[in-house]
Amino acid sequence: MSRIWNFSAGPAALPLPVLERAQREMLDWNGSGSSVMEQSHRGKRFGEMAARTEADLRELMAIPDDYAVLFLQGGATQHFAQIPMNLAGEGDSADYLVTGHWGQKAASEAAPYVQVNVAASSKAQNYLSLPPRETWQLDPRAAYVHYTSNETIHGVEFRDVPDVGDVPLVADMSSNILSEPIDVSRFGLIYAGAQKNIGPAGFVVMVMRRDLLQRATRPMARILRYAEHAANGSMLNTPNTWGWYVTGLTLQWLKEQGGLAAMATRNRAKAEQLYRAIDGSNGYYRSPVDPAARSRMNVPFTLHDSALDAAFLQESEAAGLIALKGHKAVGGMRASLYNAVPPEAVDALVAFMQDFARRHG
Ligand code: PMP
Question: Residue 306 above 70 pLDDT?
Answer without folding.
Answer: yes
